[in-house]
Design a protein that fits this description.
The complex is a heterodimer of chains A (525) and B (942).
Chain A (H helix, E strand, L loop, with lengths): L2 H18 L17 H13 L14 H14 L3 H25 L4 H13 L5 H19 L2 H17 L1 H21 L3 H29 L2 H16 L12 H4 L6 H8 L2 H26 L3 H22 L3 H6 L2 H16 L5 H24 L1 H12 L4 H5 L1 E2 L2 E2 L2 H17 L6 E3 L5 H6 L16 H13 L4 E5 L10 H4 L1 H10 E7 L2 E6 L2
Parallel strand pairs in A: 3-4
Antiparallel strand pairs in A: 1-2, 4-6, 5-6
Chain B lengths: L2 H19 L31 H18 L6 E2 L6 E2 L13 H6 L2 H26 L4 H12 L2 H5 L4 H6 L2 H13 L5 H17 L2 H18 L4 H17 L1 H12 L2 H8 L37 H4 L6 H13 L4 H17 L23 H21 L13 H20 L11 H27 L5 H15 L21 H6 L6 E5 L9 H4 L13 H10 L14 H6 L2 E6 L6 E6 L4 E2 L9 E6 L3 E11 L8 E8 L4 E9 L7 E12 L4 E8 L8 E5 L2 E2 L1 E5 L8 E6 L4 E5 L5 E2 L3 E8 L2 E8 L3 E8 L4 E5 L2 E3 L2 E2 L3 E6 L2 E9 L2 H36 L1 H7 L2 H25 L14 H4 L5 H30 L1
Helix pairs in contact in B: 1-4, 4-5, 4-8, 5-17, 5-20, 8-9, 8-10, 9-11, 12-25, 15-17, 16-17, 18-19, 19-20, 26-29, 27-29
The chains are: A mainly alpha (525), B alpha+beta (942).
Chain lengths: 525, 942
């Protein structure tokens, strides 16, 4: 079959499988409980924007504006629904998987390996729009360098700007890689003049996105807020002022003290040590690039692998900042792509002797085993998603739907009760406030949050706490909700994070209702 | 490796060796002993009484910068002086000067010793190379390098940033010569020129750089005349050097724009001249003594030793150069340097009508007297050129028999000896105040004349071929060294550790109390910026630039300053307005001060038993508690006892008789004598007598005029509410607390949550919207956030004013100057561009090196499984080594300051630990494995 047709066919399969089985963090498009925090935040932000608020100025967003604004457009044209949010998130995942497929084509990964990696990416939540924009930019620069055509450089510039505006940290990683590549070519490229010209096209593409964005955001009056919030996010996330995060597992502390083989195997394949395997994988990849560089110089393959490795190395900082299986999956995409390349190279490699053969098979086996281990880790999620697919016709499922998404009875009941309470009791009030991290209800109730923080767990520094306090004092919401059963991020509840706000609620509000585990406070004048 | 390079590295190693074994600090830190609060009670004479700036400013700044770097901060802001002032931007701090990196990396003693020795060595080395580049013989070039290195400017300004820049002069001239030598434009020399200018900018003295740039450009145009491309490339290189220096230049220009100094200097014409009579010091440098000797007197009150001797190279060199110009055929280069010398002299000394040049723009604001350094440099070059001719046996153009006559030398020598003997036997200044200094001057003149005569006599012998070249060289070296190196011996002293910023009682006392700004009243006790060494804030700044509005406020509040530029009186209002928390004074500031004799025009005659001061005063009323004088000891150790007595003139009743140990008395400071409470009445006249227990003139005196010493009486103020609380008293200094002085004004309740040099965090509560004044000097680059929202800071002359809304506010002030950011970006891009350019140019050379290693072929010759095995083993070894290192080398992490409440703060986990181990572990394992694998390949290849 013609290559283009094969790619098209594979893309169709990716879309179908992603939609049906789902590759998002929680569920597929039609089934699975709503993630009140992750999906809820997008829903809340877009909902606030529909009510006339502006990004960053009135809403504290930890991502770039291009990550959020499409949700607002979806809400505007298709109505506010959690289905729109999930569709949007899924489309980002699919875009990432498709770009991974194209990268694998560049790396000449054979079909089987390609298939396995794509399947893994669908079954394990490795991809989001954030990584997708990063990978798209990387793919474009790979193509641009090979093709040496201005249009590719122009698009690289466009997508670099987009990646910054989708996610500042991913954007910076992309810029870093592009900077390294540029320096490399400035050092070694003979025709530097032509390169400079092409870089100029890249810069033009960058400006083509950034300039209209600046004009637009400035005209709406939130450009300054965007810069200050982004700066604040950077300052917070790089330092101790991070809303969440726990210590990285200590390799030496976890090491078994006995020499029992099974204990050691368990230790080596444990989730915690998997993080170290990731680091080792990148070390090996850098070594591989170094060796090939010494042998053959900078081939396009080495360049591509190096770019992916640097991207992966940078992504790893996110994992070091906050470790966990979810974040491990988040940073997995470059590892999977490079692994696919290794497998194809190991298969193709001429085996000079029997030990070469064994070694290559051992390495392929280890890489495959790692894949299996990942599936095993995400096993419960995969089973849920696949079984949900076959229960779609079930009547019970139809009864527990929110915006066409089939959710559990418990979640349906809880969301409905809270929503009902708000609709019934706070008709005259413009504002509500959730002390627990449940931004979804802002969309559900179409109410505003008097503070900028729909996820109050971000409010950790004194400046932010005072800001929230001042906002609550300026526009006291009639009701404040605190779900005692909601997830205390990293074991620290929001009351603990915001002692001043908790004290204010204690002094100015009274408990009026209890919806399941949610305490409802009413404002006392 | 060429022999020059070899000797260069040997020299470097030797310098580090000397720096380690030197029994002390090659630094005049003992100069602080002139301040009463240092070496309290028992005065220890500093080895050089003039070298204050390096001790007061440069070393404390460098130490502050080092501590900032170690705390993970770039030293942009000095929060401890003048309620805050730019540090990096003041340029003289030379934070990024390459040699100062030794200070940040090495132990203080080794770093200090090596920095100054390296400065001398590098200057000498560059001078040697320059002289060689203009075809001077090796031996003469070495002599010239030694003479230039130990000449006036390098030695006298060694500790100043001036010499950081000046040491590049011979290098720049050398690079011009190299550029001249090459047939085409050579990018290497151009890059070297750019980098030299970059280093010059980082050196920290823009004025010297400006002077050097003018000389260098003139020299280059002169030498490259007719080669337009080379001149253009040179000018572009200089421009690129300035672009590289953007990181330093932009913040400096910003500071200069907001500075008091620029305002002051642009008002009038440059007043920096050397008196013409000081020219004699080019022949007899210690004709008025020296600050490191027992006797010293400036030629004019405002002209110090360093300035007048900046062009000194020794009479041998000066006269030889003149001689060479007279008798030999003059080449262009000699004429050039002659012109440089003459112009430098004419501009530096106040010579009509040339001083009108100093009214020209730019020249009017710069210290042109320091151009004299070029005269010193020029005469050394001329000397080498002349000596080269002499040794080559070049025939003179004019008859010079008279000059080379043995008889003339004999007569001169005999005359000199005769005068020396006569004046040694009979001091012509007997009975005057010059009696003691005269023998010293006589010896000095004798020495200079004898060495000069002997040199010329030796040269005559050599020209007449009666002396071998070897002996002539040895002799010349000895004579040159005797007029430079030996003459200046101990000018830059080595001091013991105990004298290196000792923790004095004043500091120890201040450290017991909460941190707050300190102001000196009267005598200096903890002068700016010495306080930096002790981490104590001081209300004044001493950085030669100064924030304009702060200085104006200081001048407005304290219009009258004493000889130390300190206020002599203070009121509680002025103290509070400036946010002063503590006052250091030499007298009791709660007493009522009355200056009874006001004149301080000169130092009176030395006090002796036979010649006491006796004077009468009247119209005094109150209970006398302290008497204050201004003392002089001429920087000499004294062992006598003084007695101060007060009598009622009418009754002759002795009211007070207090002894003072002469060891307590310093030069040009106030001495406060605490007396038993003595009631004085208006109607009575009183007589004061100051006398000594010995007739041996210990060279102690008081300042005053018309035979009456400056005198202040301090009376009791019964019943007056005291705005100052005495916290402590050391032997020489009172430490006061200013009652009700606030750091933040305009708000009832506030607390400082965090403070570092570039950040201040406050928690304030206000019951109404208001403007608050934070007692930190306003300066562009400071940003303020209230509850996370950016707020504009206003200048309340001189402090920061910010609007506060009602309720609780979390105020965060941070210093992030745009000038530094832009400068850093420009410098970074410049260095990156330069690196890329150099790499591309040198790629072939590097490529041939790489090909020589033939690694690619070796990799192919080894099978895949062996590679895998070797890498696996290397990785396992690397992991084991790293794990071992982590266990063995404890790295201490402290949790960064934050108001955040999250998992890290709840569990007190230092977050940076994970990042540190991730990056260090990654790099360690990667580099270790790569290294091990490459070594394995090599072994295998063999």
């Amino acid at each position: 079959m013609e290559k283009r047709k094969i790619i098209f066919f594979e893309i169709i399969i990716i879309i179908v499988l992603s939609v049906l089985i789902g590759s998002t963090g929680t569920a597929s498009l039609f089934f699975g409980d709503i993630n009140i925090i992750d999906e809820g935040q997008f829903a809340a932000w877009a909902s606030h924007m529909l009510l006339g608020q502006h990004m960053f100025k009135d809403i504290y967003i930890t991502y770039g504006p291009f990550f959020v604004y499409p949700v607002y457009l979806l809400f505007k044209y298709f109505g506010s629904s959690i289905f729109s949010v999930r569709s949007y998130i899924l489309s980002g995942d699919i875009a990432g998987i498709i770009i991974s497929l194209l990268i694998m084509y560049r790396l000449r990964v054979p079909f089987l390996a390609r298939f396995c990696v794509i399947l893994l990416m669908i079954l394990i939540p490795t991809m989001q729009l954030r990584q997708a924009t990063g990978l798209i930019s990387l793919y474009l620069i790979m193509e641009a360098i090979d093709r040496k055509k201005p249009l590719w450089f122009f698009f690289t510039g466009i997508f670099t700007a987009c990646s910054i505006l989708v996610s500042p940290d991913i954007g910076i990683f992309v810029c870093l890689i592009e900077g390294i590549i540029l320096i490399w070519y400035f050092l070694f490229e003979k025709r530097i003049g032509i390169y400079s010209q092409q870089i100029g096209y890249g810069i033009l593409g960058f400006i083509a996105v950034v300039l209209p964005f600046v004009l637009w955001s400035h005209s709406e009056g939130w450009f300054g807020s965007y810069l200050s919030v982004t700066k604040d996010v950077f300052n917070s996330f790089s330092g101790i002022n991070l809303p969440n995060g726990t210590a990285f597992p200590n390799f030496l502390a976890l090491m078994p003290r006995s020499f029992n083989v099974i204990t050691w195997v368990k230790f080596i394949s444990s989730k915690e040590i998997l993080l170290y395997w990731g680091i080792l994988f990148y070390i090996c990849t850098f070594l591989y690039c170094f060796i090939i560089l010494l042998k053959k110089g900078m081939t396009s393959r080495v360049r591509d692998i190096s770019m992916l490795s640097i991207f992966g190395f940078c992504l790893y900082f996110i994992l070091v900042g906050r470790w966990g299986v979810g974040h491990f999956f988040f940073i997995l995409s470059p590892i999977l792509l490079i692994s696919a390349y290794y497998i194809s190279e190991l298969i193709k490699m001429p085996k000079k002797n029997i030990s070469d053969k064994y070694f290559s098979y051992i390495l392929i086996g280890l890489l495959c085993l790692s894949g299996v281990r990942l599936i095993m880790i995400n096993r419960p999620q995969i089973i849920t998603n696949v079984t949900a697919l076959f229960q779609s016709a079930n009547d019970n499922q139809k009864k527990t739907r929110i915006d066409n998404i089939s959710v559990s009875k418990g979640q349906k009941r809880y969301i409905d009760s809270v929503n009902k309470f708000i609709t019934k009791n706070s008709k005259n009030s413009k504002y509500i406030f959730f002390l627990s991290n449940e931004p979804l209800f802002y969309m559900m109730s179409k109410k505003l949050n008097p503070t900028r923080y729909d996820l109050p767990y971000i409010v950790i520094t004194k400046a932010k706490r005072y800001e929230v306090l001042a906002a609550l004092q300026a526009h006291p919401p009639q009701y404040i909700f605190n779900n005692l059963a909601s997830w205390p991020v990293d074991g620290v509840s929001n009351s603990q994070r915001m002692p001043e706000v908790a004290a204010y609620i204690q002094n100015h509000y009274r408990k009026v209702a209890m919806i399941e585990k949610t305490v409802v406070y009413e404002y006392e004048k | 490796m060429s022999s020059t390079t070899k000797y260069f590295f040997i020299g470097i190693i030797l310098i580090f060796f000397i720096s380690v074994i030197l029994p002390g600090y090659f630094f005049p830190a003992d100069v602080v002993n002139n301040i009463p609060s240092f070496s309290e009670g028992k005065w220890t004479r500093p080895k050089n009484s003039l070298e204050a700036d390096p001790v007061y400013q440069f070393e404390p700044w460098r130490d502050f910068a080092k501590r900032s770097f170690f705390s993970g901060q770039f030293p942009l802001w000095n929060d401890l002086n003048g309620q805050g002032a730019p540090l990096f931007a003041n340029m003289q701090s030379a934070v990024l000067f390459p040699l100062n990196f030794l200070y940040y990396l090495l132990p203080t003693k080794v770093a200090i010793n090596s920095i100054y020795l390296l400065k001398l060595f590098l200057f000498g080395f560059f001078m040697y190379l320059y002289l060689r580049s203009i075809d001077i013989r090796v031996g003469i070039a070495i002599l010239g390098a030694i003479a230039a290195t130990f000449s006036g400017f390098m030695i006298l300004w060694l500790y100043w940033p001036h010499t950081n820049v000046y040491l590049l002069l011979p290098l720049l001239l050398l690079l011009t010569e190299k550029l001249k030598e090459t047939k085409k434009i050579s990018y290497r020399w151009n890059i070297a020129i750019a980098i030299s200018y970059f280093i010059g900018i980082l050196g920290g003295h823009p004025e010297t750089l400006f002077h050097i740039a003018i000389l260098h450009m003139t020299y280059s145009v002169f030498r490259l005349w007719g080669e337009k491309k080379k001149i253009t490339s040179l000018l572009l290189s200089i421009l690129f050097g300035f672009i590289l220096g953007a990181v330093q230049i932009l913040p400096f220009l910003e500071y200069l724009r907001n500075s008091y100094t620029l305002q002051k200097r642009t008002v009038g014409v440059s007043q920096f001249y050397l008196p013409l009579q000081a020219f004699i010091m080019n022949f007899f440098p210690f004709i008025l003594g020296g600050p490191h000797r027992q006797y010293y007197r400036p030629i004019e009150p405002q002209t110090n030793f360093q300035e007048v001797l900046g062009g000194y190279a020794g009479p041998i060199i000066l006269l030889s150069s003149a001689f060479g110009l007279l008798v030999f055929k003059k080449k262009k280069l000699e004429l050039f340097w002659t012109a440089v010398i003459v112009i430098s002299w004419l501009l530096a000394y106040k010579v009509w009508p040339f001083w009108y040049l100093n009214t020209l723009p730019v020249l009017r604001t710069s210290a042109n007297q320091r151009l004299i350094a070029f005269a010193g440099f020029g005469v050394v070059v001329l000397f080498c050129l002349v000596l080269n001719k002499v040794l080559k046996g070049e025939k003179p153009q004019v008859p010079y028999k008279i000059m080379f006559s043995n008889r003339i030398y004999g007569i001169l020598f005999a005359l000199n000896v005769l005068l020396f003997v006569v004046f040694s036997l009979k001091n012509p200044f007997e009975g005057t105040k010059y009696v003691q200094i005269f023998p010293f001057i006589l010896q000095h003149i004798f020495f200079m004349v004898v060495t000069t005569i002997l040199f010329f006599w030796m040269t005559t012998r050599f020209i007449k071929k009666k002396l071998s070249e070897k002996l002539y060289f040895i002799g010349t070296t000895i004579f040159l060294l005797s007029q430079t190196f030996l003459l200046f011996w101990n000018y830059n002293p080595v001091i013991p550790k105990s004298q290196f910023y000792p923790a004095i009682p004043v500091v120890q006392e201040l450290k017991k109390f909460p941190k707050g700004a300190v102001l000196e009243v009267g005598n200096p006790s903890l002068p700016a910026d010495i306080n930096l060494r002790f981490g104590i804030p001081e209300n004044t700044n001493y950085d030669a630039v100064e924030v304009a509005w702060y200085r104006h406020a200081l001048d407005q509040l304290f219009p009258k300053k004493n000889q130390w530029e300190n206020p002599d009186d203070i009121t509680p209002d002025t103290a509070r307005r400036l946010g002063i928390m503590y006052v250091l004074s030499d007298y009791d500031i709660t007493l009522q001060k009355k200056t009874v004799i006001t004149d301080v025009a000169s130092v009176l005659h030395p006090i002796a038993k036979s010649s006491p001061y006796t004077y009468e005063i009247s119209n005094q009323d109150g209970v006398l508690k302290q008497i204050r004088f201004r003392t002089a000891n001429f920087n000499r150790v004294n062992t006598c006892t003084l007695f101060v007595s007060l009598r009622n003139s009418s009754t002759n009743k002795l009211l007070i008789n207090k002894p003072i140990s002469c060891r307590e008395i310093r030069d040009n400071v106030f001495y406060t004598l605490t007396v038993p409470p003595t009631p004085l009445t208006k109607n009575n006249r009183y007589s004061i007598t100051v006398t000594s227990n010995t007739n041996n003139t210990n060279a102690l005196a008081l300042w005053g005029d018309n035979g009456k010493p400056f005198t202040e009486f301090l009376f009791d103020t019964p019943g007056k509410k005291n705005p100052f609380t005495l916290l402590a008293k050391t032997k020489s200094t009172y430490i006061w607390k200013v009652n009700n002085s606030k750091f933040v004004e305009g708000v009832k309740k506030y607390s400082v949550l965090y403070e570092d040099p570039q950040k201040l965090v406050l928690d304030a509560t206000s019951d109404k919207p208001t403007d608050i004044i934070i007692k930190k000097t306003f300066y562009p680059g400071w940003h303020s956030q209230i509850n996370g929202n950016e707020v504009t800071i206003k200048n309340s002359d001189p402090f920061m004013k910010i609007p506060l809304s009602k309720g609780k506010s979390y105020i965060e002030l941070t210093y992030r100057p745009l000038s530094f950011l832009v400068g850093t970006v420009i410098t970074f891009l410049g260095i990156l561009g330069l690196g890329i350019f150099l790499f591309r140019k040198e790629r072939q050379v590097l490529g041939s090196y790489y090909k020589g290693l033939v690694i690619g072929k070796k990799i192919d010759s080894i099978s895949f499984d062996q590679h895998v095995m070797s890498i696996v083993i290397a990785i396992v070894m690397a992991i084991a080594c790293y794990a071992f290192l982590v266990l063995v080398v404890p790295v201490h992490f402290t949790q960064p300051w934050t108001t955040a409440i999250n998992w890290f703060t709840v569990h007190h986990y230092p977050r940076q630990r994970d990042y540190f181990y991730y990056i260090s572990g990654f790099l360690f394992i990667l580099v270790f494995t790569c290294g091990a694998w490459i070594i394995w390949i090599w072994k295998k290849g063999k």
